[in-house]
Write a structure and sequence with these properties.
The protein is mostly helical. The chain folds into two domains: 1-61, Homeodomain-like (Arc Repressor Mutant, subunit A, Orthogonal Bundle), CATH 1.10.10; 64-218, Tetracycline Repressor, domain 2 (Orthogonal Bundle), CATH 1.10.357. It has helices at 2-36, 43-50, 54-60, 64-88, 94-111, 113-124, 129-133, 135-154, 164-183, 191-209, 214-218. It is elongated, with a radius of gyration of 21 Å. The protein starts with a helix and ends with a helix.
Length: 219
Amino acid sequence: MASARGAGRVVSTRRENAADKRRVILDAAIRVFAREGFHRCRVSDIAREANVAYGLVYHYFRSKDEVLDTLFTERWTLLLEAIAAESRRTDCSARDKLQAVAAFIVDSYRNDPHLMKVIIVEVTRAANTFGRAHLAEIRQAYESISAIVATGQEDGTFRSDIAPDFATLCFYGAIEQLLTAWIFDEITMSPAEYDQACEMLVDTICNGLAVRTQAQAQV
């Protein structure tokens, strides 16, 4: 029995070590992709950054393409889960839900700017194989945000003459443009200003979606 327990601990330790090494490679890839650009770097660059043998990268990933795919899927899955969690809430308004979604994305950049740079530059804004391969996941995020807008229209918070899909494009497009400005150092902000920028962005979109009085509609 003791031998069996010991063997179990060995297997568990090996799995943990494997997971750790895989994470080290992924984290190194983030730095290399952000610094050099995905297309300009090689697997050997990732291995050097991770301080591991060249062949070890291929032990966990078939190619640098799979590394990028993994990085995107990990982060985008978290975004989809965050949007879904907000959509299910019944204790807040559609505006509050959009605020929470925007805050999640901004916090993602604040906590891991290199990863967000890789995702935006190399995947979501890139007219290449990766962007096309992940269209389904990208559309899922848009559709989920659109559903939040639709609930705001149903309860009378948002005006109904603007298509939810169009509102979503404006909302996510504004967030992505803001992140792009931060990524390329076009705008420098303090930690407090990140929150302020997020609030201003949501206010701008939601004020445009707000139901107008008859007098406002005639202006």
